[in-house]
Write a structure and sequence with these properties.
Elements lengths: L1 H49 L7 E5 H19 L2 E6 L6 E5 H17 L5 E9 L2 E8 L5
């Protein structure tokens, strides 16, 4: 009976471990798909920009939600590479800003993912701070640079 109980507990641990791994791998796939979609949109936007047909869609955006989403996508990439993602978000950031949400997300993801891509050890730091009437974004890494 003890042996059965011990074995069953061990099997349950493996099942829980396997379930966690599946969730983690699913998150990685989801974020990778988002990145691929963003790359495709980047290419299409570049074509629109070159042809003079790029239109902005200005709307009210909750800034912290947008930043959190960008960071969570980039975090998958930094974790895969064993790089630490550090965030420094100013408490004085405006709650809502008027911007093209898609374009701002595109810019933040490009900065974060490019930084993560070329950083093999160390860290990537994302800074968002309020400066007067504007918001300043900065990505600093310990990568090889250009």
């Amino acid at each position: 009976c003890f042996f059965f109980s011990s074995r069953r507990r061990h099997t349950r641990c493996r099942e829980v471990s396997w379930a966690r791994r599946c969730v983690q791998e699913t998150d990685i796939m989801r974020c990778s798909c988002k990145l691929l979609v963003n790359i495709t949109h980047d290419m299409l936007d570049y074509c629109l920009y070159e042809s003079g047909k790029l239109m902005l869609n200005i709307e009210d955006v909750t800034l912290r939600d947008l930043i959190t989403e960008a960071i969570s996508i980039a975090e998958v990439q930094t974790k895969q590479r064993g790089v630490k993602l550090i965030t420094k978000i100013d408490d004085n950031l405006p709650i809502v800003i008027s911007t093209d949400r898609k374009r701002l997300m595109q810019i933040l993801l490009n900065l974060l993912t490019n930084s993560a891509k070329y950083t093999f050890q160390g860290s990537v730091t994302f800074v968002a701070e309020s400066k007067g009437q504007s918001v300043h974004f900065e990505v600093i890494d310990t990568g090889i640079g250009i």
